[in-house]
Amino acid sequence: MLYFKLKFFLFYILLLVLNVNYVVTQFITASIIGSTVLGGWFGWDTVKDNTFCLLPKVECCNDKHVPYNLSRLKVSLSQKMFGQPLVNELVNILVAHKESIKDVNRQNKKALVISLHGWSGVGKNYAASMIADAIYAKGMQSRFVKMFMGKKDFDCSDMEKSKKDLMATINLIVSSCPTSLIIFDEIHDMCPTILDTIKPMLDHHHAVDGIDYRNSIFIFISNIGGPQIATNLLELYDKGIKRNEVEFHHFEPIIRRTSYYTGGFEKSSTIAQHLIDHYIPFLPLEQHHVEMCALAEFRALGVLQPTEEMMIDALSIITYGPSEDQPIFANNGCKRFVKHIPYVIQKYKPKEEL
Fold first, then answer.
1. What's the rounded Cα separation, in Å, for the pair 195 and 262?
2. Tell me: the pLDDT tens digits for 108-153?
3. 131, 164, 270, 271 - which has most CB atoms within 10 Å?
4. Contact 309, 294 (CB under 8 A)
5. Of the candidates 111, 132, 119, 127, which has an alpha carbon nearest to the alpha carbon of residue 277?
6. In a domain, 105, yes or no
7. 204 burial class (0-12, 13-18, 19+ CB within 10 angstroms)?
8. Is 75 a member of any domain?
9. Does residue 124 sit in the same domain as residue 268?
10. For 266-321, how does the pLDDT look when each residue is reduced to its tens digit (9 = 90+)?
């Protein structure tokens, strides 16, 4: 009981320090008092959810702030991701992970580790942000989401310090929320051995240094395997296999083999010890996928029916490969539309609207 009163007192002081307005303070204080009385029945998490976690700028690791709304992810992928049949399987992968979080009888045995591969501009970062938006109320801005960048965060100058800082940062995030999301981007530019630092967090352990990582998610993003995915896709086309008929097993061996000798994955135990659960190939985009992508960008900016001239102008920046003799796939996907389409919209505005 004394422990409970102490927590109540600390929360009240925190409210005063945060200078919460009078009405909110009175409401939350009443909630605290009521929850304190009932604390013996409902437990501290319930008290916290109904008091401190109601503050506007507070983010807690509960269902309100971590809703895990995978129906939202399914809609986002169907409406905003084009030509990526295997990427849509992320929904099923995450649903399986979520169900093991909620069901005490089938707990996760390890963290979920997903590796996204493909050319630049095919939607890898976009997919990662969609996952964050679905799981966390604040999306990528959540304090339970952390993105590391290849060269920026791991420049190879002081590897030991980088590894210690990496461990400390991830430990802090996951200890505050077991369902945290850790993203490593630009692994093709990362120093080898960095990923081996987090190997214990990805493996089949109940806890590492007292922290349970089994309900967390790790996402790796890289351009590694992009050319090989494109070549393999062409070979599948030659065999009569359609784009929407491809399976993970068509790409995983070549992705694993290429990754093991490249960038941050070089000789990494994450690959050698099979700690990556899913290798997701992002297929190179064809012309009709790029057109769908451009149209979606126009509509997101309020232009529901761009003219033919506007579409031609938008698509003029796209080049196709893998060679001049095979102009099948867009070399940079949809990446350049983010800046080019706003320019096109401005360019074709009537003069009086300028």
1. 13
2. 999 999 999 999 999 999 999 999 999 999 999 999 999 999 889 9
3. 131
4. no
5. 111
6. yes
7. exposed
8. yes
9. yes
10. 999 999 999 999 999 999 999 999 999 999 999 999 999 999 999 999 999 999 98
